[in-house]
Amino acid sequence: MLNFIICDDNLNILDKLKTMLENIFTKNNFEATVSYTSDNIDDILSYVDDNKVDVLMLDINLKSGKSGLELAEAVRKKNKDVYLIFTTGHLEYAMVAYKFKTFDYLAKPITYDRLEDTVKRLFEDINGLPKKYIKIDNKNTIIDESQIHYIKRDGMKLIFHTSSRDYDTYSSFAKLEEKLPENFVRCHKSFVINLNNVKNVDPVTCTIYLKDDSCCNIGPKYKQEFMEVLKNHGIIK
């Protein structure tokens, strides 16, 4: 059981973060609990002294005598293994926060999906599960590549279709493709698909069916080369 504690000087945000974390734990069957929340730095330090703490989520810009960065430094001296997750509405603090071996940095307002992504990565890190992630924008939005079924170009945007939701960012295939692993293949002028998530291919209708029952098309320009890739990967004979 992992113990999370939260420090924020806004009581409404404290309650919201606690509720979101508890919902994420329940939804994903994570063995974790929010064991303590406080808007007081001294209370947090006292709790860390006397209790097992695995994850500390704290606001950087606290209104008390000490900042969240000072709190992080003090907690690090007491517990070198604690996972630190910083939250703040002040982007200029982001780089400073990472010197404390920060696991993640969440810009306010914090969304449920962004928080869930962070918690999932944290559990994967703790469990030692090898995962690869793709950073899709300048806001530190990262996606587990195994969850991506396809990437679609839509005007000036790229849409990342995953098992749980769609993410979009302003970018191009030209910038993205060099960052993608070899299992991501262009099959259409508007589609790049993850070969690992292909369920079936209909060469007559030029349709690719993915494991989540979504589908995308094979473009005439890409068909011959793409079909060879499918054969080489054993997806078709």
Topology (elements, then pairings):
Blueprint: E1 2-7, H1 11-28, E2 32-38, H2 41-50, E3 55-59, H3 68-78, E4 83-88, H4 94-97, E5 102-107, H5 112-127, E6 133-135, E7 142-144, E8 148-154, E9 157-162, E10 166-170, H6 173-176, E11 184-188, E12 191-194, E13 198-202, E14 207-210, E15 215-217, H7 223-232
Parallel strand pairs: 1-2, 1-3, 3-4, 4-5
Antiparallel strand pairs: 6-7, 8-9, 8-12, 9-10, 11-12, 13-14, 14-15
Helix pairs in contact: 1-5, 2-3
Describe the structure.
The chain folds into two domains: 2-130, Response regulator (Rossmann fold), CATH 3.40.50.2300; 144-232, LytTr DNA-binding domain (OB fold (Dihydrolipoamide Acetyltransferase, E2P)). A hairpin with a 4-residue loop joins β13 (198-202) and β14. The strands form four sheets. The protein has a five-stranded parallel sheet, with helices on both faces. A five-stranded antiparallel sheet has the order 10-9-8-12-11. The longest helix is centred in the first third of the chain and has 18 residues, at 11-28. α1 (11-28) crosses α5 (112-127) and α2 (41-50) packs parallel to α3. With 237 residues, the chain is an alpha/beta fold. It has helices spanning 11-28, 41-50, 68-78, 94-97, 112-127, 173-176, 223-232; strands at 2-7, 32-38, 55-59, 83-88, 102-107, 133-135, 142-144, 148-154, 157-162, 166-170, 184-188, 191-194, 198-202, 207-210, 215-217. The chain is elongated, with a radius of gyration of 22 Å. The protein has seven helices and 15 strands.
